[in-house]
Design a protein that fits this description.
There is one protein chain. Strand 1 and strand 2 (117-119) form a beta hairpin. Helix 5 runs antiparallel to helix 6 (121-137). The chain has 188 residues and is mainly alpha-helical. It contains eight helices and three strands; from the N terminus they run αααααββαααβ. The chain has a three-stranded antiparallel β-sheet. The chain is globular, with a radius of gyration of 22 Å. Belongs to the PRA1 family. May be involved in both secretory and endocytic intracellular trafficking in the endosomal/prevacuolar compartments. It comes from Arabidopsis thaliana x Arabidopsis arenosa. Its main location: membrane.
Length: 188
């Protein structure tokens, strides 16, 4: 007698895990995070000190914002995350936005090109920031988001003013970047 209602017990019931794809993804994440400036350099206490005058403070802000750009973005995103702990809807939206940040800003190997235009990192940073703020404000956690943005901006500015720039070296491209975020490059 055959039992047609029995549960099949095949060893091929679940698809095989592609270890090569997982390995490539892990390496891609490691390589992407390696381009970020080390936290040890960012928080080197021997490189901290008050600026001598206002122009020195503005110079430090400009240099540190360029040098620690992705580290500052991580700091602000963490402040926003912790401010949304008690707002689950906002936290879900933020989790989705974090994936956009990871793939469009932190883990890109090559410049982002749309049509024939190469989009600068600053334009991507600004675009993702605006999109994050607008979508989070639509989740009715306005006070938490505004407070988190102010706290994140204050933390970043305090660090940018206090961190000396004598030991920081920007590459030539970053030191001489143009002010517009879009540059025309023929697609190859």
């Amino acid at each position: 007698m055959t039992n047609n209602n029995a549960i099949p017990t095949s060893s091929q019931a679940s698809p095989a895990v592609d270890h090569e794809s997982i390995s490539r993804a892990k390496q891609h994440i490691k390589d992407g995070l390696a381009t970020r400036r080390p936290w040890k350099v960012m928080f080197d206490f021997h490189s901290m000190g008050l600026p001598h005058n206002v122009s020195d403070a503005f110079s430090r802000i400009k240099t540190n914002l360029a040098y620690f750009r992705s580290s500052y973005a991580i700091v602000v995103l963490n402040v926003i995350f912790f401010s949304l702990i008690w707002h689950p809807t906002s936290l879900i939206v933020f989790a989705g936005l974090v994936f956009l940040w990871i793939f469009l800003y932190f883990l890109r190997d090559e410049p982002l090109k749309v049509f024939r235009f190469q989009i600068d990192d600053r334009a991507i940073l600004i675009g993702l920031s605006v999109k994050t703020i607008v979508l989070l404000l639509l989740t009715n956690a306005t006070f938490n988001i505004v407070a988190a943005l102010v706290a994140g901006a204050v933390l970043v500015l305090i660090h940018a003013v206090v961190r000396k720039t004598d030991d920081l070296f920007l590459d030539e491209d970053a030191a001489t970047t143009e002010t517009s975020g879009l540059t025309s490059h023929p697609s190859s």
